[in-house]
Amino acid sequence: MGARAIGSQGSGGSGTAFGSSAPSAGSASNSGSSDGFAVSQEGGGDVVVDVTGAVRSPGVYRLPSGARVTDAVQRAGGGTGSALLEQINLAARLGDGQQIVVPERAKGTAPVAAGAATASDQGPISLGSASVEQLDTIEGIGPVTAQDIIDFRDQHGGLSSIEQLDQISGIGPATMGALRKRLQP
């Protein structure tokens, strides 16, 4: 388990403040800041997530159980100017050990309006934000299986890997191969 900083919040606070599980030399920058998370001692645990991609401070962060992807992205300093935050599901609940990859717009390209590109023009689809229509474009996935994937993702608070889709009825080895080619976690 990582280190946990415990400090008083006000005169009688007994919350636990969560920070990056990897201590840094500049950790004093959080002093006096109220943007941290606090959970009461009876709160029931926390999750550790890896936030990477187009964020200002990528790294491993400890957040309260029940936190959302948006909380993790904010904890990592928010998206950079080239972040494609609309490509990930910011409302998904975090799972322990999950990696959140914030995709980045390719250098020299302008933002693309939603739905403007065809599935073959796009790179991998984000598993965290894929719609039924996007999943339906993958070979071997029809609208029913696409909806099953969305339901599975919602029931599990997101997915940390494509391999988890193997647990869905109707997805066999050939479909898993197609999913690995077209999806990113």
Summarize the structure in words.
The protein has 185 residues and is an alpha/beta fold. It is built from 4 helices and 8 strands, in the order E-E-E-E-E-H-E-E-H-H-H-E. Strand 4 and strand 5 form a beta hairpin. The longest helix is centred in the C-terminal third of the chain and has 13 residues. It is globular and about 40 Å long. The chain starts with a strand and ends with a strand.
Features:
alpha/beta, disordered N terminus, DNA polymerase, domain 1, Ubiquitin-like (UB roll)
List the helices and strands and how they pair.
Layout: E1 5-6, E2 16-18, E3 37-39, E4 46-53, E5 59-64, H1 69-75, E6 99-102, E7 125-126, H2 132-136, H3 143-155, H4 173-182, E8 183-184
Parallel strand pairs: 4-6, 7-8
Antiparallel strand pairs: 1-2, 2-3, 4-5
Q: Can you describe this structure in just a few lines?
A:
This protein has 185 residues and is an alpha/beta fold.
The CATH architecture assignment of the largest domain turns out to be: Roll
Q: Helical element count?
A: 4
Rounded to an integer in angstroms, the radius of gyration calculated over CA atoms is 19 Å
- What share of the residues lie within helices? 10-25%
Mean pLDDT: 72
Give the class from helix and strand content and strand pairing. Answer: alpha/beta
Uncertain regions spanning at least 5 consecutive residues? 1-34, 38-43, 112-121
The helix/strand order is EEEEEHEEHHHE
Shape: globular
Tell me how many strands there are. 8
In what range is the share of β-strand residues?
A: 15-25%
| CATH top level assignment of the largest domain | Alpha Beta
How many domain modules?
2
Going across the biggest sheet, name each strand in turn. Answer: 1-2-3
- Briefly note the CATH topology name of the largest domain: Ubiquitin-like (UB roll)
Termini gap: 25 Å
The biggest sheet, with number of strands, parallel, antiparallel or mixed sense and barrel status, is: 3 strands, antiparallel
